[in-house]
């Protein structure tokens, strides 16, 4: 059973609050640097806690705009400008948040080599749909079978698009993200009760090669019984994260492409 839409939005909101605190409320601003699903721990009520501060960095001080670091982080989540230049700002975390939000919307992992070519990297796959306001529904996890708020999914997709802006300055502050997410867990305009939406959905399932078999290979966001505390990570049999790299600085390669 897929994790319900409203719970996904609750988790996104909780995690966003965590980042907003680190960036904007902590006595000394902190850049988290390794924001990803497996570092969001959940309690029984799906309250999110950020874990693993091993890579966290003090934010820039005084009038500096960034800190320069060796590029560390996780493939598929790190902001492109950070990977390319090593310049770390809080907007790098905002990008990673955008990736996680996209994972929540789509039910896809940020990197999934089991998908068809062109779909390995979630952000690359999603970008064309993110730009098209009227096509956001193509992004939404088909396993939800319409049990999601239309307005909420649209808002979430727009927000993800802003977080994933190539220009870091165009990305919102985390406090803005929190404000945008606040109403989303409570929206009730379910797509499943919209005739118009059902028609589009049927159309999509018929035409998308990756949904043809009905069964999807990824197992993300399944509720895994009563194990507490949980995390949002995908139980795939191994705890080793295959995309966890230390990027060599100025490497031209890991720019999100696979
Ligand atoms: N306190 C905890 N309670 C329950 N599960 C946890 C806890 N800490 C970590 N985990 C889970 O254990 C797994 C391994 O975590 P670990 O932090 O070692 O690796 P990771 O999150 O994939 O990568 P990173 O080293 O970048 O954090 C993840 O699925 C994570 O969600
Ligand atoms: Mg971790």
UniProtKB/TrEMBL annotation:
Keywords assigned by UniProt, alphabetized: Kinase, Transferase
Tree of life domain: Eukaryota
Q: Which Pfam families match?
A: Pkinase
Q: What is this protein called?
A: Serine/threonine-protein kinase pix7
What sequence ranges are listed for the domain Protein kinase?
Answer: 1-187
Check the record and name the InterPro entries matching this protein: Kinase-like_dom_sf, Plant_Ser_Thr_Prot_Kinase, Prot_kinase_dom, Ser/Thr_kinase_AS
Q: Which GO terms describe its molecular function?
A: kinase activity
Q: Which PROSITE patterns match?
A: PROTEIN_KINASE_DOM, PROTEIN_KINASE_ST
Residue stretches of biased makeup (Polar residues): 204-239, 247-258
Name the segments for region: Disordered: 204-258
């Amino acid at each position: 059973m897929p994790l319900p839409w409203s719970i996904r939005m609750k988790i996104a909101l909780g995690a966003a609050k965590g980042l907003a605190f680190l960036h904007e409320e902590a006595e000394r601003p902190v850049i988290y640097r390794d924001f990803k699903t497996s570092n969001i721990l959940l309690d029984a009520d799906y309250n999110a806690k950020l874990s693993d501060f091993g890579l966290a960095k003090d934010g820039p001080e005084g009038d500096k705009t960034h800190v320069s670091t060796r590029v560390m982080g996780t493939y598929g989540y790190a902001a492109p400008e950070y990977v390319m230049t090593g310049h770390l700002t809080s907007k790098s975390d905002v990008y990673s948040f955008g990736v996680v939000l996209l994972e929540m919307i789509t039910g896809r992992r940020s990197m999934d080599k089991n998908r068809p070519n062109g779909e390995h990297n979630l952000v690359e796959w999603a970008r064309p749909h993110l730009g098209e306001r009227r096509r956001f529904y193509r992004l939404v996890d088909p396993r939800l079978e319409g049990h999601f708020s239309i307005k909420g999914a649209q808002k979430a997709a727009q927000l993800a698009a802003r977080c994933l802006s190539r220009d870091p300055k165009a990305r919102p502050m985390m406090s803005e993200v929190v404000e945008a997410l606040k109403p989303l867990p409570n929206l009730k305009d379910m797509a499943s009760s919209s005739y118009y939406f059902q028609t589009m959905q049927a159309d999509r399932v018929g035409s998308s090669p990756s949904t043809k078999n009905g069964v999807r290979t990824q197992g993300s966001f399944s509720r895994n019984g009563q194990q507490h505390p949980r995390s949002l990570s995908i139980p795939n049999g191994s705890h080793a994260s295959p995309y966890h790299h230390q990027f060599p600085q100025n490497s031209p390669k890991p720019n999100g492409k696979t």
